[in-house]
Amino acid sequence: MHFLAQVFGWFTTSANWSGTQGVPVLFWHQLELSVAVVLTALLSGGGLGVFLGHTGKGGLIAVNAANAFRAVPTLALLTLLAIQPAISLKWGGFLAAWLALTALAIPPILTNTYVGMREVDADVRDAAKAMGLTGAQMLRRVEAPLAIPFVMAGVRTASIEVVATSTLAAYVSYTDLGTYVIAGLNTNDSVVAFSGALLVAAMAGLVAVALGVATRLLTPLPMRAQPRSRPLTARIHAA
């Protein structure tokens, strides 16, 4: 109880909520980094997934290669980037963190986008072709809307992973909520470290809820009430 009282005291201390090292500023810095990473991963990994899923060529190789890359520890990659003079502390550590976290975010988005595109029913594709739709029209009007739930599942997974892992950016002098965690660990101050971890968990929860709402809004209305089949869900989680 004494520890929890100290944590409560930390959160109710006005000094922790003001200035350049205050919670609002660091919260915004972490959100800014996370959004930049996820958008980059969506444009690159999602774009590649759409192309591979639409054409059906080379998709499995790309997806497997991306998933294999997930075995690379983010901290190790971040450290390697941080010792490069051209990257090092560029933009206050933002560049190194952005590159390392983007590598983490691309695989789930690429995998889910590719699976979503390939899971479009062949009969639906044939019907679209019979109606005279071109490849681009079929992609825009048929395949992309049907793949939205899968794509957003990948975005949600990537976003939560990025928010949780972006605390490591403090190692390269980028000031976000990880600053509290790292500072607490370095000074053996468990109250500060725990408080920072709670803030990161709260951000991850908010992001998950927001993306859940966004997924429902972006999903075509007829698909909202249709539960996913177990094989498809299993395949996504396995990826």
Quick structural gist:
By secondary structure, this protein is an all-alpha fold. It contains 11 helices and no strands.
What does this entry look like structurally?
- There is one protein chain.
- Helix 4 (74-82) packs across helix 5 (94-118), helix 7 packs antiparallel against helix 9 and helix 8 (178-186) runs antiparallel to helix 9 (190-218).
- This protein has 239 residues and is mainly α.
- The longest helix is centred in the first third of the chain and has 33 residues, at 23-55.
- 75% of the residues lie in helices and 0% in strands.
- The protein has helices spanning 2-11, 23-55, 59-69, 74-82, 94-118, 122-130, 135-165, 178-186, 190-218, 221-224, 230-238.
Helix content: over 70%
- Give the helix/strand class: mainly alpha
Number of strands: 0
Biggest β-sheet description: none
List the secondary-structure elements in sequence, H or E.
HHHHHHHHHHH
Instruction: Note the overall shape.
Output: elongated
Distance between the ends: 42 Å
Mean pLDDT reading: 84
Cα-based radius of gyration, to the nearest Å? 21 Å
